[in-house]
Automatic annotation (TrEMBL), chain B:
Keywords: Oxidoreductase. It comes from Oryzomonas japonica. Residues 16-233 form the Pyruvate flavodoxin/ferredoxin oxidoreductase pyrimidine binding domain. Coiled coil: none annotated. InterPro entries: 2-oxoacid_oxidoreductase, PFOR_II, Pyrv_Fd/Flavodoxin_OxRdtase_N, THDP-binding, Transketo_C/PFOR_II. Pfam families: PFOR_II (PF17147), POR_N (PF01855). The keyword Cytoplasm does not apply. This is 3-methyl-2-oxobutanoate dehydrogenase subunit VorB. The keyword Oxidoreductase applies.
């Protein structure tokens, strides 16, 4: 195929005029594959921002990803990197073992809310407290996505899920956990921030934060944590646009965006 | 180069791990194995290694999983209650075909149990322990020297077969002091760890360490592959010790600390003119079936002795010739239940006279 010819998704050649400049491409760290995520799911956007950070620091070839249990388990299907699949909630411990044995590698985990904030609370808190030189991408969509929309530790009060059919009752089920703030209390944490990808402005801000998180690891500054608020239209029973709007109208007021700990500022 | 030392069994494990090239240890304190993390917390950092006292047994086994996935030799150790917690991680390691060494210094159970010697975790160790249907390599040392030798072997076998390996001892073997000849690791030819997750350089394939198989037939193919590997392991790696079995009309069979006591009892029986031998499995998985098959061709009378109400005896019964008789004598684990040589001699005498 001559240069200047690219294939569309359907595989038909698309001839580009030499004068046209390509301004938007797939990050090198992502594979050229179709997504299995549902329409309107935010995993794809978050994957892309993580891949862009890898490209930016040219660390793809030395990055080890740790996949968790849930929709995020297919990390290795999208990222063009070596990946270890961790048991449910254990990704920070797995990442600890990987990083300690290969301290010249960049190690990150990618975990959902059930994984990180319920079954894996012990692992996340202690990896953070040890100041493990890893980056954690925590995707909070207020539900267990893969298992079919059960109540998560981050489910909003009153939110109906398949295991809270009357809505989350704080008297019995407790309150949604704010992980970015919780981890910010730990001395071992170098960076903790919450982002969202529900608007272009928030995407740009999320990109900046994710880059900072990876930069801290590249610089060996310790544990960095990104909580990314995400939509799960399928399990919320919403259309993609409505789900995207819910992130702004319901989630952000309870889970405010921002930087909760930054050792550069201490 | 070999050195004669006088050390505890647990220390021998830690020394052997270092000699075997293990530089990564992840553990959690529990009696009667805490000498192992204590020793390695002191000795690994000066060697450039890493010691982590994990937040939990679950944390420790998953750190082992993560380190092992990058291709290094790594170890964890615990005792019954902690090993129970590690089972999730061991299952994932087995499912991910990851090597790694787990040391279990058995104590009495169930529950919190007690800290006295036990062999009641035989089933847990040899049947896989966790979910999903898998086996791990299980080695049963009966002396401080074997704690050293078998720990080294555990690393080699685990690397060769890509199956987690467990050193299964008890508090007697772990806590007692004996002479040890510390020797360099054997020069075993090991396969390259081309599957390890180390970062994907240009031109290298993507390595993924995983246990999720969703495609049609994938999971089934994995199981058949592992099944064949377990059979290969049984053929090539079964290990056992025989003492005076050639002319024996009664063969006592026991592993670990119980086998030591049985050995003394057998000497007493020989002195009394009884033709009694000992068959001591060293590998509990693979169980040395071939030794039982061979011996039961001539000897039809077996006595299994365990520090439990009977677990290994099931494997003995499955392994001997159909016309052989297998009897059992056991003491459940707990303070004061370790049998004396005299006690076992009486049991041997009783069975011998009936044979």
């Amino acid at each position: 195929m001559d240069s200047g010819t690219v294939l569309t998704r359907a595989g038909t050649p698309l001839r580009m005029r030499n004068s046209m400049k390509q301004v938007f491409t797939r990050p090198e760290s992502l594979k050229d594959v179709q997504t299995h995520f549902c329409p309107g799911c935010h995993h794809g956007s978050i994957h892309r921002l993580v891949a862009e950070a890898m490209d930016e620091f040219d660390i793809r070839s030395k990055t080890i990803g740790v996949a968790s249990v849930g929709c995020s388990v297919f990390l290795y299907g999208y990222f063009d990197i070596d990946v270890i699949e961790a048991p449910h909630g254990r990704a920070p411990a797995v990442a600890t073992g990987a990083k300690r044995s290969r301290d010249d590698r960049i190690v990150f985990t990618y975990q959902g809310d059930g994984d990180l904030a319920a079954i894996g609370t012990s692992e996340i808190i202690h990896a953070a407290n040890r100041g493990e030189d890893i980056t954690v991408i925590f995707v909070n969509n207020t539900t267990y996505g893969m298992t079919g929309g059960q109540m998560a530790p981050t489910t909003m009060v009153g939110q109906k899920t398949s295991t809270s059919p009357y809505g989350r009752n704080q008297a019995k089920d407790g309150y949604p956990i704010r992980m970015a703030e919780l981890l910010a209390q730990l001395e071992g944490v170098a960076f903790s921030a919450r982002v969202a990808v529900n608007s272009p402005k928030n995407v740009m801000q999320a990109k900046k934060m994710i880059k900072t998180a990876f930069r801290y690891q590249v610089e060996g500054r310790g544990f960095s944590f990104i909580e990314a608020l995400a939509a799960c239209p399928t399990n919320w029973g919403m259309k993609p646009l409505a789900a995207n709007e819910r992130v702004g109208s319901e989630m952000i007021p309870y889970f405010p965006l921002g930087v909760y700990r930054n050792t550069a500022n201490l | 180069m070999s050195e004669k030392l006088f050390v505890k069994g647990n220390e021998a494990v830690a020394m052997a791990a270092i000699e075997a090239g293990c530089r990564y240890y992840f553990g959690y304190p529990i009696t009667p194995q805490s000498d192992i993390p204590e020793y390695l917390s002191r000795e690994l950092p000066p060697l450039g290694g890493e010691f982590i006292q994990a937040e939990s047994e679950i944390g420790a086994i998953n750190m082992l999983l993560g380190a092992s996935a990058t291709g290094v030799r790594a170890m964890t150790s615990s005792s019954g209650p902690g090993i129970s917690l590690k089972q999730e991680g061991i299952s994932y390691m087995a499912g991910s075909e990851l090597p790694g060494v787990i040391v279990d210094i058995m104590r009495a159970g169930p529950g919190l149990g007690g800290i006295d010697a036990s062999q009641a975790d035989y089933f847990q160790a040899t049947r896989g322990g966790g979910h999903g249907g898998y086996r791990i390599i299980v080695l049963a040392p009966a002396s401080v020297q074997e704690m050293y030798d078998l720990t080294m072997l555990a690393f080699d076998l685990s690397d060769i077969y890509r199956i987690p390996a467990m050193v299964l001892a008890d508090s007697v073997i772990g806590q007692m002091k004996e002479s040890l000849t510390a020797h360099p690791r054997p020069q075993t030819v090991l396969p390259a760890k081309d599957w390890a997750v180390r970062g994907r350089e240009a031109g290298e394939p993507q390595n993924v360490v995983k246990s999720l198989y969703l495609g049609d037939g994938e999971m089934e193919a994995f199981h058949w592959k592992m099944h064949a590997r377990y059979q290969e392991l049984a053929e090539k790696e079964s290990r056992w010790e025989e003492v005076q079995t050639e002319d024996a009309t009664l063969v006592v069979t026991a592993f670990g600390s119980t086998a030591r006591i049985a050995k003394t009892a057998i000497s007493m029986a020989r002195e009394a003119g009884m033709k009694v031998g000992l068959l001591r499995p060293i590998t509990l998985f693979p169980f040395p079936k071939q030794a039982y098959e061979a011996i039961s061709g001539n000897c039809k009378n077996f006595l299994t002795i365990e520090l439990s109400t009977g677990q290994m005896v099931e494997d003995v019964r499955l392994s001997v010739a159909r016309d052989a008789e297998v009897s059992f004598y056991g003491r459940p684990p707990g303070a004061g239940s370790l049998p004396t040589p005299e006690e076992l001699f009486e049991q041997i005498k009783k069975r011998y006279l009936n044979s």
